[in-house]
Amino acid sequence: MEDEVVAEKTNRQVVEDEVAAEKTKRQALDSALRCLIQGQGGELPPNVAVGMNSLEGQSRKDGNT
After folding, report:
1. Residues 23, 64: contact at Cβ < 8 Å?
2. Cβ atoms of 26 and 64 closer than 8 Å
3. Are 43 and 50 in contact (CB under 8 A)?
């Protein structure tokens, strides 16, 4: 029984680490895209800006900024 609990905790930590890594990757891509577009003198199309802002808001809700 103890082994199962330890295994479950380990699996949970692995999943949490993977989620955190994906969020970090998403934030880096978001920043790079914004910099690229703004560096070209443009602005994000409204639908893209809304989508990216909603992802950003979701990250904040999840406790990550």
Report:
1. yes
2. no
3. no
Q: Please give the Cα distance from 1 to 39 (Å, whole number).
A: 57
pLDDT in tens, 22-55: 999 998 988 888 888 877 777 777 777 777 777 6
Q: Is this prediction's pTM over 0.85? A: no
| Angle value at C-alpha 18, between 14 and 19, nearest 5 degrees | 120
- List all residues 6 or more positions away from 33 whose beta carbon is below 8 Å from its beta carbon: 52
- Cα 2 to its chain centre, rounded Å, is 33
